[in-house]
Specification:
7-stranded mixed β-sheet; 9 helices; 36% strand; binds 2-acetamido-2-deoxy-beta-D-glucopyranose
Amino acid sequence: MKGGRGMSMLNLFPFLLTFTILSSPALSLSDLILTKVDRRIDLTSQIARISTSLKVENAGSDLVSEILLSFPENQANHLAHLTAKLSEGKGKGKTSGVGLPVEVVHPEGVPSSLTIYSVTLPKGIGKGDSLTLDVLAVFTHTLEPFPEKITQADIQLLLFQESAHYLSPYAVKFQSLTVKLPDARIESYTKLDSAKLQGSELKYGPYENLPPFSYLPIVVHFENNRPFAVAKELVREIEISHWGNVQVTEHYNLVHGGAQIKGEFSRLDYQSRPHVRGASSFRRLLAKLPPRAHSVYYRDEIGNISTSSLWGDSKKTELEIEPRYPLFGGWNSAFTIGYGLPLKDFLFGLDGKRFLNITFSTPINDLVIDTLFVKVVLPEGSKDISVSVPYPVKQSQETKFSHLDIAGRPVVVLEKNNVVPEHNVHFQVYYKFNSLSMLREPLMLISGFFFLFVACIAYVHADFSISKSSASYLAKLQWEEVQATVRQIHNIISRCLITHDKLEASLRDLSRTGDVQACKATRKSVDSSLKELSKELKSLVAFLQSSPQATPVLSKVEEIITKERDLQEKLMAKHSTVVDCYEKKLGGREIENRIASHQQKITALRQEIDDLMDVIDEI
Ligand SMILES: *[C@@H]1O[C@H](CO)[C@@H](O)[C@H](O)[C@H]1NC(C)=O
Ligand SMILES: *[C@@H]1O[C@H](CO)[C@@H](O)[C@H](O)[C@H]1NC(C)=O
């Protein structure tokens, strides 16, 4: 092992140790040999893409139907996407569109620090036959910023570690490696004899006749200021409305995943020379929306952002997203974009089912997504739901309620980690839906308006709105009855008082005319009307006494009635005394003396009764 030459600034020992265990793998997994391996590694963005073309030959006598691919631990942990396709025609011809089935296997004798994937071939490779396999492996978070922390003015430098030899369980006859770097500074690279730098392309090899599990570490240290836009989390909600719209809402929690910024940030420096004083930052992202996207918006916690721009033609709609501040390493930005799409472009019918066919991931270019949730909200009443995604995802279901929903809308929730642009392919959600249930909501609206209309008419024709059976309504009715009764009592007492006045008036007439008979006649009629009134009072008071609602007023009512009786008695006594005096022909002074005590009480009682009448009048 001779890696790390010329890289004195880096201590690469921990990295190299991982592979010393591979030094004696004398195992032979099959009779396959790789006659030619061409590897091309693209490091021009934050995502590392390794394309490998493998010419595989069967040197044994048995049919072989699987090919093994191996990855060291540090790569396997960051592997986001792996496809293997058969190459058609000779050499670097066209690759057939269909990816072959790939799965993790654990063959015996392979060190546990290696992850092995098995590619299943449609037809096996016979004795002496060969084929060419094109493998694409995509890795995230595998370019390490070094140094880890930089200032606003610094460029961003990255480290990438690989093996110059293709790590394979098979012997390799002939191989080469090309590493494509951004057009920028290359700080250093492992200078093996076979290494060659041509412009921004670093080449290793060719190497010939290497045994299985050959490994030769190399490290490249280079400048890369491409936006390291990472969505820690993205929630995409796709809501289907059979009334013609697919509404997409995407909530991003974005971070700059590159070298952390240290020291003060100066906006002034940044604004005067953004390319020098903010080379590692980014301030714009481009989202490619489907054609005919409409009602596009972009907002963050503060509100709509109008500086974003939108343009489009018949093939696409492009939205430029510009956060309120440039993003440096470690900085976050949370925002939402939303857009509507025509239903007929994305919803189709098949065998009595409907299905949504739409892209799975973000429309934003070159974005890495750590955790992606795709939520497909189906119309209420959808049944027999199934999902087809061309790679493994975690699947669950929830229910969403919006206006007028009764049972709620079924929501298919799909979760995937470590998402790269290669995952942005079409997926399908199939479901059954009865068209009649589409009419449910409009019918609900129509009947809703109808009932509102009827209720308005009923309201206009009845002057109360409280339900007749409710307790409060009954209490209200009872209280109204109490009030009416009290008013009647008030009325009767008033009539009693008028009658009293008549009696008093008859005495004044007597003193003027001396007509005792007329006075006695008045007394008689007064007596009988007071009796009548007292009878009327009895039934009313009995009602009040039986009504719990009347408790607060009952004592006042009883008090006034008692006082009125008292007053009556005193008036009668006075009247009798005066008439008696007249019959005995006593003088005026004598009469005054005899009635003086009555008169005092009468005046006091009358005053009290008038006061009580005012109180009762206010009930
Ligand atoms: C934001 O913009 C969208 C689309 O233009 C609009 O529908 C929405 O009302 C706006 N919201 C605010 C808070 O301005
Ligand atoms: C989904 O749409 C894509 C792009 O229009 C198309 O290529 C694909 O065949 C469709 N899938 C299905 C199942 O219809």
